[in-house]
C-alpha cells in the first residue's frame, strides 16, 4: 500500500541519518572504522529496537529486514570517508540528529498506533524511539547526552509524536505535518537557543 | 481478588514514589519540566519494564494499564512544584528511594512467582526490579549510582525479595513482612551508616 | 546430542569466565561481596540476555536453566577469595575478558543461526553477545569501556562470529576454529598492541 511504502522509505532515511550521527560521534571520539560501524548501527536501530521489545513483537524488525543493518553499515563507512570534508563535525552532527529526531518521533508513534496503542503510549513510544538511540550513543561515548542539553529537545520529539497521534484520524497529511512541526521546533531551538525554564530554587546540597 | 487489589495499590504507590525520586534527581541536575517527567517516568516504570521483558510477557504492563504512565507524569509534575518546599532535596530523594526499593524488591518477586519462576529467579527479579530504575536514572544523570554507594543497598533489596520468596507459601502476611524487613534494613543502613566489608587487599594497578 | 552438549559446556565456561571478569572489575572498584555477585552476574548473563530478547524467545534462558545464575554467583564468590592472590588484577581481568570475548562471539552466532537468522544478523548477534556484558559492566562502574580501548577488540568478536557463520555449513570444526581465531586475534592485540587506524583528520571543535 502506498502509505506503508512512504513510511518504509522515511524509516530507512531516518535510520541512515541517525547512523551518520552515530558515526560522527565516533569521529569526535577518534575511533577506528569498526567503532564507526558499531556506533552508527547502535544509534540507527537502537530506538526502533527498544520500541519493538516494548511492543512485544516476535523478533526485532531488523531480524528479517536486514536492509536496516546494511544501511547502517553503509552510512557509517560513508561517514568515515566524508567526515574530513566537513568544517565542523559537531555542527553536522547537531543537524543530522535533528532530522533523525523529527522522523523517528513520528515513526515511533505510527508503529505504536499500528499495534492499537492508547494515545499516551503512542506518544511515549515516539519520544522513546527518537531519543533512545542518541541516549545510548552519548552514554557509551561518555558525552553529555544531547537530550539533557539546555535547548528544547525532548519537547520537539513530544510535539512530533503528539501531533501525529492527534492528527492521523483526520488527515492523510498527518505524517509530513508532524515531521515538519518536530523539525521546525528543534531547528528553532538550535538557531535561536530556545529553552524551557529550568528548575529554579537555590539548591544547597550536593548530590 | 483482594490480595491482587492490595498488590496493585502497593505497585502504584511504589511507582509514584520512584517517579518522585526520579524527578528529584532531575531537580538536582536543574532540568526543565519535561526533564522531570522523563526521568520520573523512566525511574518509575524502568524496573518493572525490564522485569516484563525478561519474563517474556506479551507487551509491557503499561501498554494496556496506562494509569502507570499517568501516575508517573502526575508525580513528576507535582515534584516540580513541591521540590522548592524541601530543605534538602538529597535527603528526601534518599528516603523516597528507600521506600521504592522496599516495595519494588518484593513486588518484583511477587510478579516472577506468578510466572512460576524458580526461587533464585524470583529473588533476582526482585533485586532487578528494585534497582534498575534508579540505576538508569543515575547513569543518565551522570551521578554515582546509589546502588554502588557505600551503605547497604542491594542487600536490602535482596532481603525483601528473598524473605517474600521464602515466606509466601506459609503466611498471608508475607507481603507486609518482607516490605518491612527490606525498608527496615535500608533505613538502618542510612541512619547508622551500615555497610558490608569492602574488598580489602591493597590494589596497586589502576584499571 | 553431542554437539549441543559441547555448546552447553562451552557456554557455561564462557559465563563463568565473564562472571569472573565482572567480579574483578568490582574488586578494582573496591565493592562489597554483593557488588561482586551483582557485577559478576550482570557481566556473565548480560550478553546472552540481550541476545534472547532480540531473538524474541519466550523467556530468557536463565529463567528455566538456573545453573547459569548459580555459576555466576559461585564464580563471583570464588573471585572474592581468590583475587588477593593475584599480583595484578587488571592483567587477569584483561585475559579473562579475552577468553569470554572469544567464546561468546561464536556462541552468539551459534544461537542466532539456530533461529535461522540471516548471516549479517548472526554476525551482529555474536558481536553483541560478546560485548554487551562488558559494556554494561564498564558503564556502571564508570570505567572506560574496554571495547572503546585502543587495541583491536570488536574486530576479534567480529572475526569469531563471522568465521563461524561462514564455516559452519562446511565443517564440524567450525566451533573450535572460530573460537581460536577470535582469541588469537585478541591475544595478539593485547601482546603486540595491534590497533586499527583511528579516524585521523584534525578535529577543531569540542563535542
Biggest sheet architecture of chain A: none
Kindly report the oligomeric state of this protein.
homotrimer
Extended strand count of chain A: 0
Integer tally of domains of chain A: 1
InterPro entries (chains A, B, C): Gly_transporter
Subcellular location (chains A, B, C): Cell membrane
Family (chains A, B, C): Belongs to the UPF0126 family.
Protein name (chains A, B, C): Trimeric intracellular cation channel family protein
Task: Describe the overall structure.
Chains A, B, C: This is Trimeric intracellular cation channel family protein. Chains A, B, C: Its main location: membrane. Chains A, B, C: It is a multi-pass membrane protein. Chains A, B, C: Belongs to the UPF0126 family. The structure is a homotrimer of 207-residue chains. Chain A has 207 residues and is mainly alpha-helical. Chain A has one domain (2-192). The first copy, chain A, contains seven helices and no strands. In chain A, helix 5 (119-140) packs antiparallel against helix 6. Chain A is globular, with a radius of gyration of 17 Å. The first copy, chain A, starts with a helix and ends in a 15-residue tail after the last helix. Mean pLDDT of chain A is 85; it is low at 202-207. Chains in contact: A-B, A-C, B-C. Chain A binds chain B through residues 53-56, 115, 117-118, 120-121, 124, 127, 135, 139, 144-145, 147-148, 154-155, 158, 195-201, 203-207, and chain B through 26-36, 38, 41, 49, 53, 57-60, 62-64, 66, 69-70, 80, 83-84, 88-91, 139-144.
Amino acid at each position: 500500500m502506498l502509505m506503508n511504502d512512504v513510511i518504509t522509505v522515511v524509516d530507512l532515511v531516518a535510520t541512515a541519518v541517525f547512523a551518520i550521527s552515530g558515526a560522527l560521534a565516533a569521529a569526535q571520539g577518534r575511533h577506528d572504522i569498526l567503532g564507526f560501524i558499531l556506533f552508527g548501527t547502535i544509534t540507527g536501530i537502537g530506538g526502533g529496537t527498544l520500541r519493538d521489545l516494548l511492543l512485544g513483537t516476535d523478533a526485532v524488525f531488523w531480524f528479517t529486514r536486514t536492509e536496516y543493518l546494511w544501511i547502517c553499515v553503509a552510512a557509517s563507512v560513508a561517514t568515515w570517508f566524508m567526515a574530513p570534508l566537513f568544517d565542523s563535525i559537531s555542527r553536522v552532527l547537531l543537524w543530522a540528529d535533528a532530522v533523525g529526531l523529527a522522523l523517528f518521533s513520528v515513526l515511533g508513534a505510527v508503529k505504536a498506533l499500528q499495534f492499537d496503542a492508547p494515545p499516551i503510549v503512542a506518544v511515549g513510544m515516539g519520544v522513546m524511539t527518537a531519543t533512545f538511540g542518541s541516549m545510548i550513543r552519548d552514554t557509551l561515548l561518555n558525552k553529555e547526552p544531547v537530550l539533557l542539553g539546555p535547548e528544547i529537545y525532548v519537547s520537539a520529539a513530544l510535539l512530533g509524536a503528539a501531533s501525529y497521534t492527534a492528527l492521523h484520524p483526520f488527515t492523510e497529511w498527518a505524517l509530513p505535518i508532524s515531521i515538519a512541526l518536530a523539525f521546525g521546533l528543534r531547528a528553532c531551538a538550535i538557531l535561536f537557543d530556545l529553552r524551557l525554564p529550568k528548575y529554579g530554587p537555590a539548591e544547597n546540597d550536593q548530590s
